[in-house]
Amino acid sequence: MPELPEVETVRIFLKKNVIQKKTISVKIEDKNLRFQISKEIPEKLNFQMITKILRRGKFLIFLYSNNYSLLLHLGMTGYFRLSKTYEKIKHDHIRFNFNDKVLVYNDIRKFGFIKLYTNENVFESQHLNSLGPDALNLKFSVNYFLKHKKRKTNIKNLLMNQSFVSGLGNIYCSEILFDSRVSPSRAVSSLKKFEIENIIKSTKKILKKAIEMGGTTIKNFIVSDEKIGYFKNKLLVYGRESSVCIRCKGENYVKKVKHSGRSSFFCSTCQL
Ligand SMILES: [Zn+2]
User: Which domains, and CATH codes, for the chain?
Assistant: First the structure.
């Protein structure tokens, strides 16, 4: 499932390849996503240009030259591909035809969505106005965190809560808590100030590193039939259940636990 670094990698790729290029036509291939794709999208966006592509948490926002905008979420399996000509494949939902290339959105499990707004009201939409600060924004700081210290939940669930901080999911929460040596089950109210400082530092460090990694995978692509944004990251704890912890090499192997039905991986020796 794409999290902040994957979505940012997609944003950087699209920024390099489709910004300031006139869309010749927009075609809906299959309107069924989390929300049905509105037929207004082709009507409003044919012959328009994307002037900016922004990201908020795991959302992408395309701003168009005629003051319309698209709000996109990749859901669990959504991805873009950029080709010279269009060849339909299963689960293609919408395509944007440019003079010399075509950008296609494909989503096997259909949890993603694409919605039309105006440039003014997209930021007030229910999806964006409830988001907490982006995990990479300076607003996600130690002082901000301290204001939420009384919350009655554990740190894993708090970091997963998009209205507290936006952009994190299962994978990066495990990696961040491993890096900051804090157990995912710790009650938020029990966290010491230095632990909160470490969590904030680790968040920025891990996300920036992952974006760099994603960046190297798209550097030289002008047209890509690959699933953009799906890169292999070097994960230190996620998915390593029953393996020796790569940091402390302790006798307690990496464990998998569930918080609100979602898996967390951690080392009970070096994460307290
Ligand atoms: Zn360890």
Answer: 4-129 (3.20.190.10), 142-266 (1.10.8.50)
Q: Model confidence over 32-53: pLDDT tens digits?
A: 999 999 999 999 999 999 999 9
pLDDT in tens, 96-131: 999 999 999 999 999 999 999 999 999 999 999 999
How far does residue 147's CA lie from ligand 1's centre (Å)?
Answer: 30
On the 0-12 / 13-18 / 19+ scale of CB atoms within 10 A, 151 is middle
Cα 110 to Cα 55: distance, rounded to the nearest angstrom: 20
pTM recorded for the entire structure: 0.95
If you measure from the C-alpha of residue 208 to the centroid of ligand 1, how many angstroms do you get, rounded to a whole number? 23
As annotated, the active-site residues are 2-3, 58, 262
Q: How far is the CA of 199 from the centre of ligand 1 (A)?
A: 17
